[in-house]
Design brief:
Elements (H helix, E strand, L loop, with lengths): L6 H37 L3 H39 L3 H42 L1
Helix pairs in contact: 1-2, 2-3
């Protein structure tokens, strides 16, 4: 096995940073949507609105998990760099492996969240088709 260098975990910094930016943008969009749905629900306690609220709640919790896993991955990449710096090569390899797994799980949750997002849009479409 080749030796792990500082550049390997450092390469993930830009990728994880961009992913975290996208996750944060999603989170902010959900916050705005929730506020809007709340106002609409107070005026009209519609079944479609309730379904949308449940959908966005599920997506919000998924996004939180995606953010936690992404941040944890970034943290472990930094720890990997520190372990390489203090010449703890074997531990660094294992820590970096865990960082990669966390990133994979975060991206898998993103796929799940996208599927749920499609269901939210289907609610809008079915509401339009119903009228």
């Amino acid at each position: 096995m080749e030796e792990l260098t500082l550049t390997t975990p450092a390469l993930l910094f830009s990728a994880i940073s961009l992913i975290m930016l996208a996750y944060t943008n999603r989170f902010l969009a959900y916050a705005a949507t929730i506020r809007s749905l709340h106002a609409k629900y107070l005026k009209n306690k519609d079944g479609v609105l309730m379904a949308q609220i449940q959908n966005i709640k599920q997506r919000l919790y998924l996004t939180r998990s995606m953010q936690i896993l992404g941040i944890s991955s970034l943290l472990l990449c930094v720890l990997t760099m520190f372990l390489i710096y203090i010449e703890q090569q074997i531990v660094a390899i294992w820590v970096f492996g865990v960082a990669l797994i966390l990133l994979i799980v975060s991206l898998a949750l993103l796929i799940k969240e996208i599927q749920i997002s499609v269901k939210a849009l289907e609610l809008h479409i079915s509401d339009i088709e119903g009228n």
